[in-house]
Amino acid sequence: MKAYRRLVLAALCLTALVVVFGAYVRLADAGLGCPDWPGCYGRLTPHHAAEDIGAAHAADPHGPVSPAKAWKEMVHRYLAGGLGLLIVAIAVLAWRLRRLPEVAAGAAIGLVGVVVIQALLGKWTVTLLLKPAIVTSHLLGGVTLLGLLSWVSLRAWGAARASRGYGPILRLCARVGLALLAVQIALGGWTSTNYAALACPDFPGCHGSAWPEADYANAFHLRRELGMTADGELLPLAALTAIHWAHRVGAAVAGGFLLLLAGLLLRRDAVAGRVLMAAVLMQLALGVANVLLAVPLPLAAAHNAGAALLVGVMVWINWRAGGEAVSRRSPALQFAPLRRAENGRPS
């Protein structure tokens, strides 16, 4: 059991790193640093493919291929590959320990399916030349993996649940808050993958207007190439404006709801309320700073990290909200299986 808990925690930390580093690779315009998959020009490392990378870079010095971009892309792939192996090991251990209440065997095995889908999306991201729908789906897959691993980790480590204070309404609000956060992350991913972060350079309005001229039809058409409409024409500024503005409106709705939830939690679960409020305010501040400072790479990566942090916080709050069933068991009974596992069961 001890090995299982440690593997789950290591996978959770590595997933957070992969999600944030993947966002950094995309923001650094290195997503096609190696234009094939899974290797780099058919080689294991950019070092072995140095001749091909050098020729591509010499032919187009401002293009997507360069030694630095190739290494960024491949480091992300190495990290993702290591994460996949970790999750397979977790699934095997979870099956062996499936009778223990601390082991979410179904979720742990389901993680393998998510990893397979993520690998396919990662391949298509490269081979289909950064299609926005594929890249955004890849981001959402990473966030899904992070959320599931957070839940599995909380269960594995016997995280405390709130035995009082979470009535049906507050539990519902916690679930709605997680759903709104997922929608907002999707909007943020769509903004990033369409390079629409600079479409509205002012704040709080956009192009000096509280409701700017926007082309929502082309903005949210999923089956199209990067920077193009479904008809093959260049994506107009009005479409980029629509993408950016939808993300801002989503931030107001999701952020406002999460702050309201934090306020409700302060009276019933003060620690959770304070953590959620701090995470939401930090994320909103990073969003505003990105607009005002024209999306510098460190701030943009931090904004993605803030989204990942919020996912973990909301999963934790939903975990704590399920405290009534646990509260019927005494602490001694609750952790007895864990002690038996450590004393006599396989670990």
UniProtKB/TrEMBL annotation:
The chain crosses the membrane at residues 78-96, 103-121, 133-157, 169-187, 245-266, 275-295, 301-319. The keyword Nucleotidyltransferase does not apply. GO terms for biological process: heme A biosynthetic process. One of its GO terms (molecular function) is metal ion binding. Pfam families: COX15-CtaA (PF02628). Its main location: membrane. One of its GO terms (cellular component) is membrane. Pathway: Porphyrin-containing compound metabolism. It comes from the Bacteria. InterPro entries: COX15/CtaA_fam, COX15/CtaA_HemeA_synthase. It is found in: Membrane. The keyword Transmembrane applies. It is a multi-pass membrane protein. Keywords: Cell membrane, Disulfide bond, Heme biosynthesis, Iron, Membrane, Metal-binding, Oxidoreductase, Transmembrane, Transmembrane helix. This is Cytochrome aa3 oxidase assembly protein. It comes from Azoarcus sp. (strain BH72).
